[in-house]
Amino acid sequence: MQAALMQFWQKGYEGTSIADLTAAMGITKPSLYACFGSKEDLFRKALDSYEARYRAMADGALAEPDTRRAVERLLQGYADLLTCQGMPHGCLGLNGAIACSPDSESVRQELIHRRLEAEAVLAERLERAREQGDLPANASPDALARYLMAVAMGLAVQAKAGATREMLGEVVELTMAGWPGGTQRRPAEAMEPVEA
Asked: What is the pTM of this model?
């Protein structure tokens, strides 16, 4: 599965051929179909594996009691993951969705669905923050979640195009400077390292 994941991550869904997958996995085409059903089924399994790998980072970040800290940890952690050494840069979901033809519409829709699910989790966390007074009463959790997801997708595009971790970190800092209710940045020494 790891070999298939790496192929899809590097080349996207449509850019990855069955020949790429069988060569990377060391199996024959009939074996691939027997084990996984289809290229799309294999991609969904690879996507599940990818998401499970990084869900712990997001869950840990969003568990922070201070919402600003939670969001900063989330974005900084994502920047870490997008530029992790030894792994393809960028995001599997975004890489897979950018170049989908009409023949792969079901894959594109699946990736959109997963992105919207992640956005909804973030919006729920921000809604709780507003209810608890950790966000201004006039802040819109839904709009803020959409904005943060747009920033995250932008980070992924930048990483895929060769931006360094330092460059992505600068984008996160600028994003957090516009945080609702103030621009005060937490001291660097108070920030715990993000676990990959």
From this structure: 0.83
Percentages (nearest 5) of helix, strand, coil residues in the chain: 75, 0, 25
How far is the C-alpha of 141 from the C-alpha of 149, rounded, in Å? 12
The DSSP result for 104-118, as a single string, is GHHHHHHHHHHHHHH
Distance CA(85)–CA(195), nearest Å, equals: 14
- Between CA 24 and CA 18 the distance in angstroms is 10
According to DSSP H, which parts of 63-140 are helical?
Answer: 67-82, 92-98, 105-131
* Structure confidence by residue, pLDDT tens digits, 101-131: 777 788 888 888 998 999 999 999 999 999 9
Q: For the range 115-121, what are the long-range contacts, defined as Cβ-Cβ under 8 Å and sequence gap of 24 or more?
A: 115/149, 115/153, 118/58, 118/149, 119/145, 119/146, 119/149, 120/145, 121/58, 121/62
Q: Is residue 37 classed as helix, strand or coil in its secondary structure? A: coil
| CA–CA distances in Å: residue 193 to residues 20, 82, 129 | 37, 16, 23
Q: Give the residue among 173, 73, 193, 69 at the shortest CA–CA distance from 129.
A: 69
Residue with tokens 């950018």: 98
Percent of the chain residues past pLDDT 70, beyond the cut: 90
